Amino acid sequence: MGKLVTAALGAALVAVCATANNLRISNLEVKGRDNQTALIKFDIAWENSWRFADEGDPLYFHDAAWVFFKVKPDVVDSVPSDNYPWQHARLAGSGVNPPGFETGEGTAVELAVPADGMGLFVRRAADGVGTTAVQKVAAVWDFTANGLAKTDKVRIQAAGLEVCYVAAGAFKVGDGQGDMGQFEDGQGGQPYAITNATQEILLGGGAPGTLNSHQGTGMATKDDFNYTTGKGALPPAFPNGYNAFYCM
């Protein structure tokens, strides 16, 4: 949990913000930028980080820190906002090292911002292993998305999670041991194969090529599962785990 930081969006203020496990976020600073955005600056460090390319994928094997921010106005209707709800800060920009973001000083890192702008992944920029320690990292915050103006004072907290990258690729669910409720292929006792990102996953029924649970009827969804026949399907758009993702 982060310590409280109060700052004017047109100015700057520095304070220690968060410490969690071996991941440390410190020297949180909000600095005015223009009438819509401000810079959120911070130092970050964690131990035993790594990055190694493999199979033609430069990101194939690495960890990262997922960093996000919570904000609220310092005063609401002339009253301190102690009971006012925290809001999720939305960052301005997306992709790797978006314009205006700063990768700081120290270990060379990349800043990967998802399309929704709800935080950023901090990860090593090149192959290596050891402690990652960076000072003066900066993210661009669109404070107008939180209904704030440049003249407002805000309270802000930072939080972070250590995460591991899971590369895109085919895999199987279940281990073929026949445990009660375990996923398996309908051909009987074999793991079920996920072979591509848009695979239609047929559910239940016990037929080869369908996803079942051992001594069960399969994985069901409200809209696609037929409770009479015990069959159905997950649509191709369902996130089946083939595409790359981060996990804790």
Strand fraction equals over 45%
Overall spatial form:
elongated
User: Based on helices, strands and strand pairing, what is the structural class?
Assistant: mainly beta
What letter string, H or E per element, gives the SSE order? EEEEEEEEEEEEEEEEEEEEEEE
Number of beta strands: 23
Radius of gyration equals 23 Å
- The average pLDDT value, as a whole number, equals 84
Question: Which features would summarize this protein structure in a list?
Answer:
elongated; mainly beta; 14-stranded antiparallel beta sheet; 248 residues; 0% helix; single chain
Notes on the protein architecture:
The chain has 248 residues and is an all-beta fold. It contains no helices and 23 strands. Strands 1, 2, 3, 4, 5, 6, 9, 10, 11, 12, 13, 14, 15 and 23 form a 14-stranded antiparallel sheet that branches. A hairpin with a 2-residue loop joins β7 and β8. The protein starts with a strand and ends with a strand.
What is the compact description of this entry?
The chain is mostly beta strands.
Give the arrangement of secondary structure elements.
Blueprint lengths: L4 E4 L5 E2 L2 E3 L2 E10 L4 E18 L2 E17 L1 E2 L2 E2 L6 E2 L6 E2 L8 E2 L2 E5 L6 E5 L3 E15 L10 E14 L4 E3 L9 E3 L6 E3 L6 E3 L7 E3 L11 E2 L4 E4 L10 E3 L1
Antiparallel strand pairs: 1-15, 2-4, 3-4, 4-5, 5-6, 5-14, 6-9, 6-13, 6-15, 7-8, 10-12, 11-14, 12-13, 15-23, 16-18, 17-20, 19-22, 21-22
